[in-house]
C-alpha cells in the first residue's frame, strides 16, 4: 500500500480529527456562501440560480459566523460552498479573515471560466488550505453532459493551476445511474491531476437531484467494495459522502470486531457535520434541509451542540428501522439525509444499504423491498 499524500495542515488535522468529540464540534462546517452559479448542473442540491439572493448573509454576518466557528476549537475546518463561491466579490476577504483567525478554510468552486489560474493563485494567497472541484465524467462529453458546456475544460485547467500553485486538490464525483460506469476512468483522472482525496457522493435526491436515478443497493455495495480496493492501491485517499456504509463494508472486508469500530466512526449529518445555508439556516447537512436554527440570530456553536434535531442525529441507539438495530450503527449509522429524503424520517433506515442485521424482522424502506432485500 502507498503512503497517502500528506499536504499542508493535513497531518495535524488528521491527528486532531482522531480526538474530536462530535457532540461538541463538527469535523466539517459547510457554509453555502451563495446559491448563485453560472452552471445549471442536472443534479444540483442547491437548485442554483444565476443571481445572488438578496437575503444572503452579508460580509459582516459571514465574519460573525466565522468568529463563532472559532469557538469550536483550534483549526476548525470550514468549507465555502455554493452555488459558486466565486460569485461573491468578498470571497477572498472571507477566506483571509477565516485563515487569520485560525480556521482551516477550503472551497468548492464551480468549474466555470471564472475559475482562472489567476483566481486560484489569489485564493492560495488568501490562505486557502484545499480546493475541491467536481468531475462527474472522465471526458468532456460525459462531464459536460452533466455539468454544462466547457465545464470539463475549465475544471481540469483550474485543478492543474491549483496543483501547480501547491494547493491540495480534492475531486468530488456524483455516483448515480448516469455516472457509475465512468468511475474507473474518473479514478485515472483523479490520479493524473495529483489529487489528495477523491470524495465520492452517492446521490441523494434533493433539489434538482430528484430528476436523476440513483444506483440500486446491490450496485452501491459493489462500488463500495471497489472503492476500498482503489483506496488501497492509490496514493490519494477515498472517502464517501452520504454513504457511511462504506465503513461497514471496510470493516467486513477486514473482519474487524465492533470494539475497533467505535474508534473509526465517521461523520454523518449532524454528527460531525453541519451546514449553513446562504440565508443562515443551519441544517445537519445540505442534503437534509431541515432547519435547526439560524445564524447570526443564534451561534452556530449553540445550534450544533444543543438543537434537538442535531442531538437526535447523534444518537444511533434511538434510530428507527434496521439502522437502529444494526451492530454497525455507531461506526456507520446510515445516511440520515437519504433516510429523510426517501422516508421523511431523518432517523429512519438508509434505503441504499442492503445490509440487514441478523435477527432483524422489522420494516424495510420501499427501495430495499423493491430490490428484493430481505426477501428470503
Ligand atoms: S443497516 Fe444502517 S447502520 Fe447498518 S450498515 Fe446499513 S446503513 Fe449502516
Topology of this structure?
Elements: H1 10-19, E1 28-32, H2 59-70, E2 77-81, H3 91-100, E3 104-107, H4 117-126, E4 130-134, H5 140-147, H6 151-165, E5 169-175, H7 183-192, E6 197-202, H8 217-233, E7 237-241, H9 245-254, H10 258-261, E8 273-276, E9 282-283, H11 300-306, H12 308-313, H13 321-325, H14 336-343, H15 366-370
Helix pairs in contact: 4-6, 8-9
This protein binds iron/sulfur cluster.
Iron/sulfur cluster binds at residues 245, 248, 322-323, 326, 328-329, 332-334, 350, 353, 355.
Could you describe the 3D structure shown?
Strand 1 (28-32), helix 2 (59-70) and strand 2 form a beta-alpha-beta unit. Helix 4 crosses helix 6 and helix 8 (217-233) packs across helix 9. The protein has 15 helices and nine strands. The longest helix has 17 residues, at 217-233. It is of the alpha/beta class and 376 residues long. The chain has a nine-stranded mixed β-sheet with strand order 7-6-5-4-3-2-1-8-9. Helices cover 36% and strands 11% of the residues. The structure holds iron/sulfur cluster. Iron/sulfur cluster is lined by residues 245, 248, 322-323, 326, 328-329, 332-334, 350, 353, 355.
Could you give a quick summary of the protein structure above?
The protein is α/β, with parallel strands linked by helices and 376 residues long.
Please, what is the average pLDDT?
89
Q: Can you give the helix content as a percent range?
A: 25-40%
Lateral strand order in the biggest sheet: 7-6-5-4-3-2-1-8-9
Number of helices: 15
End-to-end C-alpha gap: 39 Å
Largest sheet: 9 strands, mixed
Q: What is the count of β-strands? A: 9
Instruction: Identify the quaternary structure here.
Output: single chain
Each distinct ligand: iron/sulfur cluster
Low-confidence stretches: 8-15, 257-263
Radius of gyration: 20 Å
What is the SS-derived class?
alpha/beta
Strand residue content: 5-15%
What sequence of helices (H) and strands (E) makes up the elements? Answer: HEHEHEHEHHEHEHEHHEEHHHHH
**What is the overall silhouette?**
globular
